[in-house]
Design goal:
72% of the residues lie in helices and 0% in strands. The protein is mainly alpha-helical.
Length: 170
């Protein structure tokens, strides 16, 4: 049944969202605690021992968070796309002579590049992790068992011909 209130965002819905975001405390796991400690240690080490700038520390920590908590690489690539829009706006403003944005377009373009590099590196890590999950032996057994079950319906020669046409890749 169609109810209009299901499709309208009401103040009651806003209150539920507010409570969910700010009053519900997620129970942290040991991995979250270890990750938080490592986050602080890496930040301190990069600032004081490696003499990184704030930007360098931010991007290294961003990469660490993406990898450690297994966040999606599209976060970084999405940030890069938003950054490209900002670069275009800043470039147009600096060409018109607005003094407070001169030089910022190049700086944001470098940030966009870092976000893209981090996103591609995270995608490579995701691809490597997915390839470890794939086992060709299980796939081969399941395909053969399906074909054996079909032998009752089809002739043996037809099944053998269809098995020859299937190419198995690692």
């Amino acid at each position: 049944m169609f109810k209009l209130k299901d499709y309208i965002f009401t103040p009651k819905d806003a209150w539920k969202l507010f409570r969910k975001l700010f009053f519900v405390v997620k129970k942290s796991t040991k991995r979250d605690v270890v990750g938080g400690v490592l986050f602080v240690v890496i930040a301190f080490g990069l600032f004081h021992f490696a003499n990184f700038t704030f930007e360098g520390v931010f991007f290294w920590l961003f990469f660490f968070v993406l990898v450690f908590w297994n966040l999606d690489s599209r976060i970084s690539i999405g940030a890069a796309l938003v950054g490209l829009i900002i670069v275009a706006i800043l470039n147009a403003m600096s060409n018109r002579g607005t003094s407070f944005v001169v030089g910022w377009d190049e700086k944001v373009a470098v940030w966009v590049y870092f976000f893209l590099v981090i996103g591609v590196a995270k995608q490579m890590i995701e691809f490597k992790m997915e390839s470890r999950k794939f086992t060709p032996s299980k796939t081969l057994v399941s395909i053969k068992s399906k074909e054996v079950g079909r032998r009752k319906r089809r002739g043996v020669k037809e099944v053998e011909e269809s098995m020859k046409s299937i190419k198995f890749e690692k």
